[in-house]
């Protein structure tokens, strides 16, 4: 989701305009805690498009003076945002301060828009033209007070944002897509048969038309699911040696086509390299995950102890995934799969609002600041969940965050917000 940074000196009506753009009725800034006090991030929505609006602080002179503070804010805006909105008081015109910031912004590779605020009536329009002198393109007249011009301004903002990747999965994209994966002989076809048999409803072998015929529609727990690429499973093509590579390609394609994977592991055998390879494919593809230990009917006390150790040793990186111990033969716990899939997908779909995310983060970072590196303490400016499916958090910082600290953030993030069954990605955008 793209980021818009709003910059402006005090008294130009920036807060009022921000409220306008966010569609709030009250002209009072309801304080959403930011990671640092002088900068707050909000979720904004216009014409069905979501973006993050970052209100950078007013340009109060700091220790180095007003000019330095202005330049620093403008630099920050440039480095963290996809577009910058400079708010100017049209009645006052461009002051030295705005000229200084315009100098910085003109060097920016990001698109910059100029809002000429306080154009409350026709008379004000003539003031707007003088703002061409900033060299930032056509100034757009707005009245934050009355709301005029704010729609046009938002249209212009959306226009200058870079194209974001289209959502791959529509919100109502039909049945949720499941990949049933695992090494050969782990029990994939047996489980699929069990699922379709037990649940009394048939596997719809969808011929041709709208659904790809290699998929199966399966009703589980009152809901229809689409198991992707099950044709190979049902045909039981016995593969000759040398075809493992193709089997692996096929697994990969199924995972890519799915939203959630059921990773089958043979509970009766030691965890193998092959198991871990499939697991890596799921994690790297960023899909939701349910781990099903199959053939549980063969597991005795000894094997169970061994298995616990394997899990501790090999599956720590997917600690967030739920495990279900099933038997395709006896039908044990097979009914648990559907609710587990639902939980995983719910997490995978979740988006934490920016205000809540930053409120949580500011408290956490205040108590546990990032480790100092090269004599400098990296500051976390703000965070936004740029995406769901899988949940992706972008942290805007002033410096590199160590892997250990990033893992710490992810752990705490999961403790607070859950995300059972879904990978969470944390990416860091460092302001140079
Ligand atoms: P696939 O290659 O992953 O599709 O595996 P299959 O479904 O063909 O199963 C491989 C073998 O494991 C078959 O002989 C199945 O009967 C057996 N099998 C599958 N699930 C179970 C289970 O839960 N318990 C036991 N004991 N055997 C199973």
UniProtKB/TrEMBL annotation:
Any single biological process term in GO: ribosome biogenesis
A GO term for molecular function: GTP binding
Binding-site residues for GTP 1, renumbered to this chain: 8-15, 55-59, 117-120
Pfam families attached to this UniProt entry: KH_dom-like (PF14714), MMR_HSR1 (PF01926)
Residue ranges of coiled coil: none
Record's keyword annotation contains Flavoprotein: no
Residues reported in the UniProt entry to bind GTP 2: 182-189, 229-233, 294-297
Superkingdom of origin organism: Bacteria
UniProt keyword annotations, A-Z: GTP-binding, Nucleotide-binding, Repeat, Ribosome biogenesis
Sequence ranges assigned to domain EngA-type G in this UniProt record: 2-165, 176-349
The protein's role, per its UniProt record: GTPase that plays an essential role in the late steps of ribosome biogenesis.
Database matches in HAMAP family: GTPase_Der
Subunit structure: Associates with the 50S ribosomal subunit.
Family indicated by similarity: Belongs to the TRAFAC class TrmE-Era-EngA-EngB-Septin-like GTPase superfamily. EngA (Der) GTPase family.
Protein name: GTPase Der
Organism: Saccharopolyspora shandongensis
């Amino acid at each position: 989701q793209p980021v818009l940074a709003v910059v402006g000196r005090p008294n130009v009506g920036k807060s009022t305009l921000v409220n306008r753009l966010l569609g709030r009725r009250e002209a009072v800034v309801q304080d959403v805690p930011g990671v640092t006090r002088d900068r707050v991030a909000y979720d904004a929505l216009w014409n069905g498009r979501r973006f993050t609006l970052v209100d950078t602080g007013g340009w109060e002179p700091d220790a180095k003076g007003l000019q330095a503070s202005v330049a620093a804010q403008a630099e920050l805006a440039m480095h963290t945002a996809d577009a910058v909105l400079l708010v100017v008081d049209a009645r006052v015109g461009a002051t030295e301060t705005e000229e200084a910031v315009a100098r910085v912004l003109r060097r920016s590779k990001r698109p910059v828009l100029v809002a000429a605020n306080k154009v409350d009536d026709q008379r004000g329009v003539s003031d707007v033209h003088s703002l061409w002198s900033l060299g930032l393109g056509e100034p757009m007249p707005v009245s934050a007070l009355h709301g005029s011009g704010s729609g046009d301004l938002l249209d212009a903002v959306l226009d200058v944002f870079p194209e974001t990747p289209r959502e791959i999965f529509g919100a109502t994209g039909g049945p949720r897509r499941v990949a049933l994966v695992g090494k050969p002989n782990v029990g994939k076809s047996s489980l699929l048969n069990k699922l379709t048999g037990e649940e009394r409803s048939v596997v719809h072998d969808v011929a041709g038309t709208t659904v790809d015929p290699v998929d199966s529609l399966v009703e589980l727990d009152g809901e229809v699911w689409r198991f992707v690429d099950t044709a190979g499973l049902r045909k039981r093509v016995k593969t000759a040696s040398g075809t493992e590579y193709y089997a692996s390609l096929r697994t990969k394609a199924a995972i890519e086509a799915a939203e959630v994977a059921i990773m089958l592991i043979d509970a009766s055998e030691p965890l193998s390299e092959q198991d871990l390879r499939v697991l890596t494919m799921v994690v790297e593809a960023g899909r939701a995950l349910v781990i099903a230990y199959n053939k549980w009917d063969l597991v005795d006390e000894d094997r169970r102890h061994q298995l616990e150790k394997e899990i501790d040793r090999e599956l720590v990186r997917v600690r967030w995934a739920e495990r279900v111990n099933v038997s395709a033969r006896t039908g044990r716990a097979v009914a648990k799969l559907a609710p587990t899939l639902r939980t995983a997908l719910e997490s995978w779909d979740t988006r934490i609002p920016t205000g809540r995310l930053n409120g949580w983060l500011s408290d956490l970072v205040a108590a546990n600041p990032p480790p100092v590196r090269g004599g400098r303490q990296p500051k976390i400016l703000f965070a936004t969940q740029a995406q769901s499916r899988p949940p992706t958090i972008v942290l805007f910082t002033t410096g590199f965050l160590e892997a250990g600290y990033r893992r710490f953030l992810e752990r705490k993030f999961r403790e607070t917000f859950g995300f059972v069954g879904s990978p969470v990605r944390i990416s860091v955008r460092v302001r140079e």
